[in-house]
Write a structure and sequence with these properties.
globular, about 140 residues, four-stranded mixed sheet
Length: about 140
């Protein structure tokens, strides 16, 4: 693996999104998903979700149309973000959410018996954002074609 590829595999993403209510949003990410809070102020907060930075800013009314697409027999939201985590962590989080009566949608195995096979489930945060949690059968196939 080249030095550039080693760096890219260790890189973190940053995603900034508006929210309706910063307190409800931070409570969801910390209490439900187990993330931690980084820097924050009255109207914004950085959330550490598996070492990736989500910045939420209380912005009032906003609207996104969640158009969907079909992958195999599964309907998926076009607009979503997610995190790839080890299968053990994926199972723990899925069980935790299921037991806490959070609505988990579209729990499925994608690309079964093909390159890139992975488990996936989606959950909606308090702002209507779809979050996908994935776990690949073979980690080296995350970007394989």
């Amino acid at each position: 693996m080249s030095n550039l590829n080693q760096y890219i595999m260790k890189a973190h993403f940053h995603l900034a999104l508006p929210c309706d209510n910063i307190k409800i949003t931070t409570a969801f990410y910390t209490d439900i998903l187990g993330a931690t809070i980084g820097r924050k102020a009255d109207k914004w907060a950085d959330i550490n979700l598996y070492n990736h930075q989500l910045t939420f800013t209380e912005a009032g009314d906003f609207n996104f149309d969640f158009k969907s697409y079909k992958l195999g027999e599964t309907i998926l939201p076009s607009f979503h973000f997610g995190v790839i985590i080890p299968v053990e962590e994926w199972g723990k989080l899925y069980s935790k959410l299921f037991q806490s009566n959070q609505e988990v949608t579209t729990e499925v195995t994608f690309m079964e018996d093909k390159i890139g096979e992975h488990l996936s489930f989606f959950i909606t945060d308090p702002n209507g954002y779809m979050i996908e949690f994935k776990s690949f059968k073979n980690n080296h196939e995350v970007f394989a074609s």
